[in-house]
Amino acid sequence: MSIREEQVSMPQQDPEKRVENFDEVPLGYDAEAAIAEAERCLQCDPAPCIEGCPVGINIPKFIDEIRNEKFQEAIDTIKESNNLPAVCGRVCPQEEQCQEVCTLGQSFEPVSIGRLERFAADWERKHGQVENSVDNEEDGRIAVVGSGPSGLTAASDLRHLGYDVTVYEQFHQAGGVLVYGIPEFRLPNEIVAREVENLRETGVDIETNKVVGRLFTVDDLLEGNRVDQFDAVFIGTGAGLPYFLNLPGENLNGIYSANEFLTRVNLMRAFKFPEYDTPVKVGDRVATIGGGNVAMDSARTALRLGAESSMIIYRRSEDEMPARDEEIQHAREEGIDFRLLRNPKRFLGDDGEVESIECVEMELGEPDESGRPRPTSVEGSEFDIPVDTVIMAIGNAPHPLVTRTTDGLETGEGGTIKTDEGGKTSRERVWAGGDIVTGAATVIRAMGAGKTAAGDIHDWLCQKDS
Prior knowledge:
By secondary structure, this protein is of the alpha/beta class. The chain folds into three domains: 113 residues, Alpha-helical ferredoxin (Fumarate Reductase Iron-sulfur Protein, Chain B, domain 2, Orthogonal Bundle), CATH 1.10.1060; 167 residues, FAD/NAD(P)-binding domain; 155 residues, FAD/NAD(P)-binding domain (3-Layer(bba) Sandwich), CATH 3.50.50.60. It is built from 17 helices and 16 strands. Helix 4 crosses helix 7, helix 5 crosses helix 7 and helix 6 runs antiparallel to helix 7. The longest helix has 23 residues.
């Protein structure tokens, strides 16, 4: 039987229609399309795609189960390793991980593993039986600080091992970056809410509006001061402190960090103002500074909020953009204006409001420490771009609140927490994982860190009690 050379395409909303709503853009495979894509898998043994997955999903097995229309078995196989398949099937960069090493991809397009994972998860949501019971109970209480990908994964694994787990989340809704940082058109909040509810049904206590480092500290959790005492703590607070360029005029009104802009829209529902009492200013001309997924999210969100023009200003070329190819393609389809090899020099305004950006043209030189060509400014090339709103999407760092209020916690460059390979920190009985350790990275890598730490905590508790 001949192998189909190209991936089965996934239907999506028409660009002209989707810029007027926040509904999900890709619509997912139906069963027929999923089976056709699954039939492309070569069923390699050994399978490089498993090694390429940060949580080690048995990819050939679940794909073969889809091929044989055993959809419940497929999602069960995925969930042996991945606690958030509906999330990962939508936002993980499979093209840089499992699909990058797909054997079929050496000659043709790789198997669309991410789309198949999403299909299995969505099938379960509509038809499947979700098993949320925990059979065994173990002695041990663990506190998880933060309910993003690493925290939810650690909490789920520890609960399924039988431990008493409490998650503390600073916002009013659990999910971390999955709900405050990723727009509905990429990851609907209902998907995350369902995963969180599944976790609650296993017996995990999720307490929102609890700012660890203010109401109580990690030390309090360990010592039982002002809160119940825990045997161990996992810190998964992510990287939510935005970077700025520190340029003249950057404090003008109308200049947001992407973190604030997306949090207002995604978590606080500003796109439904005044139904939700969260205003957000978006004028006719919006410029987003940066070239990653967050920049694409911000620029595309601005269009949906009514901007007449939304542009990306990025100092390198498209080849160096860190955003996923799919996100860049979707942005172009929607009419985002890419101003490449441009960089802000200062922000200009009147009466406290931003009115324009003075930019300079850039040219690429030899590679820098990132391996990408170093951008340098072209002397005398300054020019102005009129704007009403500017969104800074140039990266984030870990917020120092937890680290500064925890005794004996060793930190590294940029405020990250230092850990060993198992996620254990320098502070006794404290583990950490995800972006708080690595800096801003991917959802699946944060999940992998949560899974590793959960296993290490389990090993430590078993040794402690033996």
